[in-house]
Every structure is written in structure tokens, then in C-alpha cells.
Amino acid sequence: MRVSRYFLPVLKETPSDAQIVSHRLMLRAGMIRQAAAGIYSWMPLGLRVLQRIEKIVQEEQQRAGHIPLLMPTLQPAALWRESGRYDDYGEEMLRIKDRHGRDLLYGPTNEELITDIFRSHVRSYRDLPLTLYHVQWKFRDEIRPRFGVMRGREFLMKDGYNFDVDRESALHAYNRHMVSYLRTYERMGLKAIPMRADTGPIGGTHSHEFLVLADTGESEVFFDSAISELNLGGRSVDFNNWQECAAIVDEWTQPYARTEETHDPRTFELEVPEERRRSSRGIEVGQIFYFGTKYSEPMGATVAGTDGTQVPVHMGSHGIGVSRLAGAVIEACHDDRGIIWPEAVAPFPVGIINLAPKDDKTSDICERIVRGLESSGIEPLLDDTDERAGAKFATMDLIGLPWRITVGPRGIADGYVELTRRSDGETEKLGPEQVVEKLIDIFRAAGLTN
Ligand code: P5A
After folding, report:
1. Would the pTM count as exceeding 0.85?
2. pLDDT tens-digit profile of 214-233?
3. Distance CA 115, CA 162 (A)
4. 368 and 284, same structural domain?
5. Within a domain: residue 450?
6. 153 and 58 in one domain?
7. Which range of residues forms the domain containing residue 422?
8. Residue from 39, 157, 294 to probe ligand 1 pocket by mutation (most atoms less than 8 Å from CB)
């Protein structure tokens, strides 16, 4: 992609109404634009990040055996009256009437709709276990939408729902989700800690939130520092193996880690040695629930059990804040010059700065580098504009691509271009062919190209 042909509306000024760094940087880097309070357009650069985040979420869901479908954003109120949540949900639910006077709502979550699909089609325990999920826009009429995409009113969520014949099997689904979420966040370059949480309006007996520690997070959290040292790493996991998933969940849930609502200062003091006690702020990037028959019973979602009698299915639901993650990654990865994207979610893996677009030789080298990278499936962003060099460097730093190649006549005369890593500024001089080879090796090792 060439900057001269792209739509990259970066802002020179720092927007005064943005209170946290991710919101400021997303506006300045031209990633999003507010349409109304808590409602955003995703500009081309922002959309690329959102799509990369969603792709990782999709891949990890399917790896765990979960099945994608797509439900609508608008839902009939009648289903919510069946579960009893239509009145309970309150002001956060956006209620709409169609031309026939029928009550609809813009879905804040989908427990009712999925339970309706399930009860219409599944009859026997033999069809279980089943986990369905989608990635779809939600609407919650938050009182105080703020911090850009972090607390939006319209936001993108991955929400999944498991259906199991009994409690034990549903608790395996809970564990399987916890492990698959740990993998998902790690792949994005994030450390998200599962913390025991309140179940709120979704309900149920078990719940964990996943929190990325950041001073600007909206939740207060308390934890044993031992948990922040845990890593799943490249571990391969058999998601059908109940013991294997339970062992990983034990490892992550034994150290004390709780949100404000479930925090118990006495237990914290008893269980955690003083030097390991931490309290911090965190960004909630996901939450999982087990709620048994809360929806299946009132909505009549039953299956014929092993002895032929009808039993209500055991369910849970699981959510990842896909659009919130774009902000959360920036909160975790930035410096005073701009964003520092982890390679896995970067909008482009490499930026190329052409310091002399009017010089044929320089432009020719840039084109050769672009073609070399593209032939290996790596799409760079080439700044081929007439802007001043200083402005080009500032924009590249602001949009935070993991690697920058600087191409100028002086270097070319000596046979080199410069390769700079955004995270630490480390720079080396390489020939144009070597730079392509080196980047292909790096991305191949990271599993980001073939
Ligand atoms: C689980 C999936 C649920 O709604 N029902 C279906 C359950 N859980 S949740 O915790 O309420 O939301 C899941 C995740 O969505 C993100 N999120 C938001 N992101 C941006 N703006 C918002 N206003 C917002 N509200 C929730 C969070 O990451 C949350 O963990």
C-alpha cells in the first residue's frame, strides 16, 4: 500500500477531549472517528487492526472446537420476556419499535437468541456438547461512554455459548474457554490475567474476567504477583481432554486474583505473603460464565437425556471485547512518540520511508523492496509522499508499525538501506536484498508468513 493512495487521516494536534493515551493515539493515527457518543467509524488503519484481532479470535475459537454462526444485531423483545430479562436489563438496552409496533432491541448480548435457536433444532444428548459463537456488534446504552473504543455504546464482541448435558460437562466447557482465551490473548502479545469475578446481569455461579493491567483500566484488581509470571507459551493443548484443561485452569486460578466485587481483604492477607500482594488497575478484555439452567429452564431448552427423560441443558457464555482490545493493546504497547504494535496485530508489518520520491534510483529500490516482501505475503506501507522527512518519521512512529525501512540516496550510494525496530529503535544497515530476506525470516519464525 502506498501512503499517497491510502486514506490515512492523521491528526497533527492532540485531541483535547480524549482522556487516555489509547484514545488519543487512535484518533491521532487516524484509526477511528467518533460518529456519536460511544459510536465510532473504523477508518482503514483501524479496521486492519480490528480484523487482525478478530482473525486471532476466530482461529483460537475454532482450534478449541467451537462453531461459528452469525446472529443479527436486532432481536425480538418477546424472547427476552421469556427469560425475564426484558424488564431487568434496564436503561442500558436500546429498545426499538418497528413500523408494525412490534418491540425489538439492539442486542447487548445473545443468550436468549441462541437458546431459541438451540431449542428449535436440538433434541438429544447425543448432539451435545455443542458450542456456538459469533463476532457481532453489540449495543449497550452506557451512561458514561468514554475512553474511545474502550467503553463504547456500539462495540464488537465475540460471544460464545456452550450447551452441555450436565454440570460436569459444562464445567469442562468453562475450562476449555479459559484455556483458549489465555492462548488468544498471548497470541496478541498481551498478558491478560483471569480473575474471579461477579456474574452481574448475565448470572450464574462461576465467572472469571480477563484483565490487562494498565493504570487507565476501569477496574480495580487484587492479585498475587506469582500469577503474572505464568505463561502458556507454545504449549499445545488437547481441548477435548478434561484433565489437561482442568490442570491448566488450576495453575492459573490457584494464585489469588480477584476483581473489586469479589475481593476479600482477609483471604488476600491469609493466602498471599505480603511481598507478593499487588493491587492495580486493569482493563477487562473478556469474561466467561457458567450459569447452568438459568436460560434453558424458563425457555424450555431441553434434550432427551440418557434415560429418555427431558432435561434442561447446562449452559455458559463467554465474551471477548474485540473492539476494546484494539485500545487495550495500545494501552499496553506505546511510548511518547506513538503506538508500538505487537507484530501479531499490527495494521501493516513494515513501513518503508522513501526519503527522495523524486529520485528514480531511490524510488526504484523502494519498489524492489515492496515487491520482494509482497511475494512472500508481507504487505508493507510505503510512504512515497512529498512530505518532509521529519514528518514522515513522526507519522511512522505514531502509527507504530513494528519495522521501518528507510531508503535514501546517500545510503543507496553506499549500498545500504536502514532497518529499524519500532520497539527499541535498534537500527542496522543492510543491502536492499538482505533487508527483504531478514524480514521474511523474522515473520516466518513468528508464524506470520509462509
Ligand atoms: C459473555 C458473552 C457478556 O456479555 N454474554 C455473551 C456475556 N459478558 S460481558 O462481560 O458483559 O461482555 C464481554 C466483553 O465485552 C467487552 N465489553 C465492552 N467493550 C467495549 N465497550 C463496552 N461498553 C463493553 N462492554 C463489554 C468486555 O471486554 C467484556 O469482557
Report:
1. yes
2. 999 999 999 999 999 999 98
3. 10
4. no
5. no
6. yes
7. 350-445
8. 157
